[in-house]
Amino acid sequence: MPGSTKTMGVLTMGGLVVVTAYTVALGSNGWLWFGWVVLGLITLAMVASQTS
Question: Where do transmembrane segments lie in this chain (predicted)?
């Protein structure tokens, strides 16, 4: 896995931790979850493009 893909994976997992902590502390925010899903999809696309 190239460095940029690995970095995106780390950012995606870090984003999940941040969004979850925000949700627990202050309540759910749909835009944060939407942003995290978009980030996750971009990361999956990067992984898929590396394997093909």
Answer: 7-25, 31-49
Q: What is the SS3 assignment for the chain?
A: CCHHHHHHHHHHHHHHHHHHHHHHHHCCCHHHHHHHHHHHHHHHHHHHHHHC
As to burial, measured by CB atoms within 10 angstroms (0-12 exposed, 13-18 middle, 19+ buried), residue 8 is buried
| pLDDT tens-place string over residues 5-24 | 899 999 999 999 999 999 99
- Cα separation, 2 vs 9, in Å, equals 11
Any idea of the CA torsion for 26, 27, 29, 35, to the nearest 10 degrees?
70
Cα dihedral 35, 11, 44, 23 sign: negative
